[in-house]
Amino acid sequence: MASNRYNRTMSNKTSAPFSNQLESWLRSKHPKTIGGLLTVSSQKSFAVLFMVLMAIPALPLPTGGVSHIFEIITIVVALQLVLGRRTVWLPAAWLRRPLGKSLEQKTLPYLIRKIRWLEKHSRPRLGGLLEDHNFLRLVGLMVVGLSLGAFLAPPFSGLDTLPAMGVVGISLSLILEDIAILVIALILGVVGVVLEITLGAAILKLF
Fold it and tell me: pTM for the complete prediction?
């Protein structure tokens, strides 16, 4: 529906590294919105959204509650992956939501540098899994679980960082088609959720 116009294949789609594609979009005059992100890589639109939306909570910085909005959107999109959708659907109002100056000017350039480094050191491993519907559903469940863990973290505790980093890592594994990154990211995210539960229980017991 409203998101269809954002899911068309880019006319300049090439074999260029993903970091170059993301940087070109960031420097272009295209709207820096959630919907605009879907034009970066139509084939990997789910992964691109997960990576960028969860990049804010993945940073150990105060976000003023904006991270919760991005976590909710991530959960909604991940549930679509669990249900077997191959294209992203979001309400028009969400698609038009600006990413924000902090994400545009600081977080995305930082991500591009890290992705560029990963592109040099990673290699395709079991990339065929990306065509497996059951595997993608499993990935969706991972993203839902870790995003929910980040969302439920106590405010100003910084405990949402590791689960969010796990989602960013899983997204990068899909973009770079490297299953090794997914395994590392999943372990990191699960450790973060366990830490969150453990510390949360200790705080409740203390009070």
Answer: 0.83
Which CB contacts under 8 angstroms, 24+ apart, belong to 179-183?
A: 179/125, 179/126, 179/127, 179/129, 180/122, 180/125, 181/118, 181/122, 182/139
pLDDT digits (tens, 9 = 90+) for 144-184: 999 999 998 877 677 788 999 999 999 999 999 899 999 99
Collapsing DSSP to helix, strand or coil, 178 comes out as strand
6/185 Cα distance (integer angstroms):
28
Beta bridge partners of 98: 33
- Please tell me the distance from the alpha carbon of residue 146 to that of residue 163, in angstroms, as a whole number: 5
Tell me how far apart the alpha carbons of residues 70 and 58 are, in angstroms, rounded to a whole number: 11
Task: Count CB atoms within 10 A of the CB of residue 174.
Answer: 23
Three-class SS string for 62-90? CCCCHHHHHHHHHHHHHHHHHCCCCCCCC
Instruction: Report d(CA 160, CA 193) in Å as an integer.
Output: 8
